[in-house]
Design a protein that fits this description.
CATH topology of chain B: MetI-like fold
Helix content of chain B: 55-70%
Distance between the termini of chain B: 28 Å
Helix content of chain A: over 70%
Radius of gyration of chain B: 26 Å
CATH architecture of the largest domain in chain A: Orthogonal Bundle
Largest sheet of chain B: none
Number of domains of chain B: 1
Number of strands of chain B: 0
Number of helices of chain B: 17
Oligomer: heterodimer
Strand content of chain A: under 5%
Number of strands of chain A: 0
CATH topology of the largest domain in chain A: MetI-like fold
Number of helices of chain A: 16
Structural class of chain B: mainly alpha
CATH class of the largest domain in chain A: Mainly Alpha
Largest interface: A-B, 100 and 100 residues
Structural class of chain A: mainly alpha
Order of helices and strands of chain B: HHHHHHHHHHHHHHHHH
CATH class of chain B: Mainly Alpha
Shape of chain B: flat
CATH architecture of chain B: Orthogonal Bundle
Chain lengths: 300, 315
């Protein structure tokens, strides 16, 4: 390859599209396909007829189009209820989490604030040393949080890592002179926060809100630990109960499903029901995630 | 603002007080997150003492007897703890060995990709698995890899490559490979972002100089790009080494089934099954404490090493 390059002049060497470009593009194509084909397959399965699925004829395109399975999901109501509930919990989680993160990141981004290292240490230490499952379980029991919606909101809704990202965003994008100008104009710290800092940090607010929202939407371990009441369980937990552990939830859904829907199709529809919300918003919000990851990478 | 050598202590205290008074709004803001972590995190720390007790939920903290290190002695003799510890360490190491190079290679490939629009679209697709929950990933994979009806096995059987379905996720050795590869797959796109960011920061003059010196594409990757992102790689590698004690309950739980218990049984599962499901609170707490302590030590050690090597470190 190197000798080939030497023959041409420098500039043609740079701009010429070579075989290796296509090889690279092809590898990337294969990797991308592994990320998208599984979901296309499950989608196809979820809207195919039972006979087609039973005869293993469904690959990437639905055969014998049929949305029976989705209808029975809506009839059953369990998943739809859980979806609405999970959206509500996620919103609450995100709003509270962001408020607390701002309260932490803004003071900690101010240079020369006395006691800053101590406060930062207190806030971050729990990231590296946790009390463990049982002590936390007993604490939430004492706080009366078990089997409530709040156990899914309060314990996790302050993420030190997100605070770090916001803090490094603030200290790198907002110049000190702006703070000084605000101070000279007689602005209090609250006024500076609301009139200057927050309007200037819209991109990071969007990014971190998404981090919080996706984190809450996807998590289910805490629900498994702390919530036994079925109506208070989030969607992902329900999914894991229905499809993975094939517990009682699956049976109840299958019973209410029309008799001609096989478990295969119903499972595929259940998976897609839980996946579609994320896949639908994902392309639009993806760039914010990447920004956040970049900032987190610089100082994480 | 900052003055040197204050002789009298009360003057110093007064200064501090004036400072706090002038900046009380900042401290007031800070109190909210501080209160939060105290109530929901630190308040659980005293509960760790049940590792040294024979805790009975009915008797509570006060009624349960202290037993000293007895629980730990029991734990370290416990066969299932050995299995869990061994599995955790082995799988985390394998995760690291298999999972570490892939994002680097992917970042290099993406960086070399010439077709901009294509690059954007494929990046969006490659990041997707990172945003899906483990139940979704596990159930999709189960649909794909079921021995009888899974797409992959059906396709292989139709092509005449295999006679009977391969139990990708239901036999422990197959499971181990699938579990690791799915982990790599899930994280490769997202993991590449950090390297792409580092590559973007490389001075373009270095590439120009290399081109003038007659370096081809692979030479430039080897002699310019890789050395320039070495710092990022070292930092990430060390940081990941620091996390080798941790285990992801959701990933393990989602991929768990009876046939693969031998390998899937790792510390997070041990703590959950012994503790919350089995009611042996003291033992689960002892294992949790052990895991937290070793984890903390590893993080501190890896941070030290990273700083020794001249990298940023974590803390």
């Amino acid at each position: 390859m190197a000798t080939q390059e030497k023959k041409g002049s420098v500039w043609t060497g740079i701009n010429r599209v070579r075989v290796s470009d296509f090889v690279i593009a092809f590898i990337i194509l294969l990797l991308s396909l592994t990320c998208i084909l599984p979901f296309i397959h499950v989608t196809a399965k979820s809207v195919s007829s039972n006979t087609a699925v039973m005869s293993k004829a469904v690959y990437l395109w639905p055969k014998g189009f049929n949305i029976e399975a989705y209808i029975s999901i809506f009839k059953d109501g369990q998943l739809t209820h859980s979806m609405i509930y999970t959206i509500w919990v996620t919103l609450l989680f995100t709003v509270i989490g962001m408020a607390i993160t701002i309260c932490a990141a803004y003071p900690l981004s101010i240079k020369g604030l006395k006691g800053r290292p101590v406060f930062a240490f207190i806030l971050m230490f729990t990231m590296y040393f946790s009390a463990g499952l049982i002590p936390e379980y007993l604490l939430y029991k004492d706080l009366g949080l078990l089997n409530t919606m709040w156990v899914l909101v309060l314990p996790l809704c302050f993420a030190p890592y997100n605070m770090l990202i916001m803090r490094s965003f603030l200290s790198s994008t907002i110049p000190d002179s702006l703070y000084e100008a605000a101070k000279l104009d007689g602005a209090s710290h609250f006024q500076t926060l609301f009139r200057i800092v927050l309007p200037l940090s819209k991109p990071i607010l969007a990014t971190l809100s998404l981090f919080y929202a996706v984190g809450r939407w996807n998590a289910y371990a805490d629900a498994k630990y702390y919530v036994t009441t079925k109506s208070l369980q989030p969607l992902q937990y329900l999914l894991s109960n229905m499809v993975l552990n094939s517990g009682n939830d699956a049976i109840s859904l299958a019973e209410s499903a029309a008799a001609d829907t096989t478990p295969e199709v119903l499972q595929a529809a259940t998976i897609m029901f839980a996946t579609i919300p994320i896949i639908m918003i994902y392309p639009f919000v993806q760039k914010y995630f990447v920004k956040g990851a970049m900032i987190g990478a610089v100082k994480g | 603002m900052q003055n040197k050598a204050v002789s009298r202590p009360d003057l110093r205290a007064r200064k501090a007080w004036v400072y706090v008074k002038n900046n009380w709004q900042l401290y007031a803001l800070l109190m909210i997150p501080i209160a939060f972590v105290i109530i929901f995190k630190y308040a659980a720390y005293p509960g760790m003492r049940i590792a040294f007790m024979n805790y009975k939920p009915a008797k509570g903290y006060h009624g349960s007897p202290w037993v000293g290190m007895e629980t730990f002695q029991k734990v370290f003799k416990d066969k299932s703890f050995h299995t869990a510890l061994k599995n955790s360490l082995i799988f985390n190491f394998l995760d690291l060995i298999v999972g570490f190079p892939v994002p680097v290679i992917l970042a290099l490939l993406l960086n070399e990709l010439r077709f901009e629009r294509y690059k954007k679209v494929s990046q969006t697709i490659l990041y997707l698995p990172h945003f899906l929950s483990w139940p979704i990933i596990a159930s999709v994979m189960l649909t794909l890899f079921k021995p009888e009806t899974g797409l992959v096995n059906v396709a292989l059987m139709n092509a005449g490559i295999i006679e009977t379905g391969i139990p990708f996720l239901t036999e422990k050795w197959h499971w181990a490979v699938s579990y690791l590869l799915i982990g790599v797959w899930q994280n490769m796109g997202w993991g590449s972002i950090i390297y792409l960011a580092a590559i973007t920061g490389i001075d373009a003059e270095l590439y120009e100089a290399a081109t003038i010196d007659g370096a081809g594409r692979w030479r430039k990757i080897w002699n310019v790009t890789l050395p320039c992102i070495r710092g990022t790689m070292v930092t990430l590698l060390i940081m990941n080494l620091g996390r080798v004690m941790g285990s992801n309950f959701e990933r393990l739980d989602a991929f768990g089934n009876v046939q693969v218990k031998d390998f899937q049984y790792q510390l997070a599962i041990y703590i959950y099954e012994k503790g919350l499901a089995g009611g042996n609170f003291s033992r689960a707490t002892a294992v949790g404490l052990f895991q937290s302590l070793v984890g903390l030590l590893l993080v501190l050690a890896s941070d030290k090493v990273a700083k020794k090597l001249g990298e940023d470190g974590l803390l």
